[in-house]
Amino acid sequence: MERSAQRLGRALIVIVDDKVAHGEHDDTVGPLVVELLEEAGFIVDGVVSVAGETVDIRNALNTAVIGGADLVVTVGGTGVSPRDVTPDATQGVLDRPIPGIAEALRSSGLAAGAVDAGISRGLVGVSGSTLVVNLAGSRAAVRDGMATLSSLVPYVIGELSGLDEMSR
Hints:
By secondary structure, the chain is α/β, with parallel strands linked by helices. Helix content is 49%, strand content 19%. The protein is built from 8 helices and 6 strands. It has helices at 5-8, 18-21, 30-40, 54-66, 86-91, 99-111, 115-118, 139-166, and strands at 10-16, 43-50, 71-75, 96-97, 124-127, 130-135. A 6-stranded mixed β-sheet has the order 2-1-3-6-5-4, with helices on both faces. The longest helix is centred in the last third of the chain and has 28 residues, at 139-166. The radius of gyration is 15 Å and the shape is globular. The protein starts with a helix and ends with a helix.
């Protein structure tokens, strides 16, 4: 069953990359995420690039949640280096984690050969009525992650939309 963009909702992408945020490199991953989300039926509100700083990441996530995004996908900063703080920043924004989706992303990424997905500390969870997903930063991890999410995200967003309707 094909779903319309209106039905799946609005998405925002947050690229966590110091060099992209400071204009030292072009963002090569954001356009890929936009393309994959639009193919899945989302309206993409935009791509925001932030430095790998907890406050910057948290501010971008909070802005997306307050702005009513249905889905926020962060890309980058999920590994084990000291600069990889995306999961730590995300944890402070989430109301409820969804560890099963995060584990599915790691498992499928590793199986597909995306090493950074396999060592990702990325989180998935709900903030308000927004689904927040951390993906590892490589194009391979993004492609595999989006393929894994394609069947799960519409279901979660449908559940969250139901919560919105019940609270009205």
